[in-house]
Amino acid sequence: MIRVSDPALRKIALEAAQQVTTDIGRIHTDDLYEAICERLRQEKELFEATIHKAAAGMTRDLGERHSPRRHRKTGGLYHPDSILRLGGGIWVSMKDSTPTDTAQ
């Protein structure tokens, strides 16, 4: 789902990237983060969109960090702290999953 503010946030990111690009075409991510943050501080009307993007990123990071991977901790796929993505925006903690959930 694209929100109305997404193009505005993308424009800020692009402008910040152009600002911090070096003479030889390199973009240092630390500089880019700072330039984006500075621009977002100036755009008070994009506060809610920024919060939404941060929450989406944190959700994605949680899912990636806790997805089951072979030989991660236990040498197999099961770990009680893992999160299974069932589809349709539904996740389940592996310790609470049913046999049907794991088959999906």
Automatic annotation (TrEMBL):
Ranges for the region named Disordered are: 58-80
What is the protein name stated in its UniProt record?
A: Uncharacterized protein
* Organism, scientific name: Streptomyces sp. R28
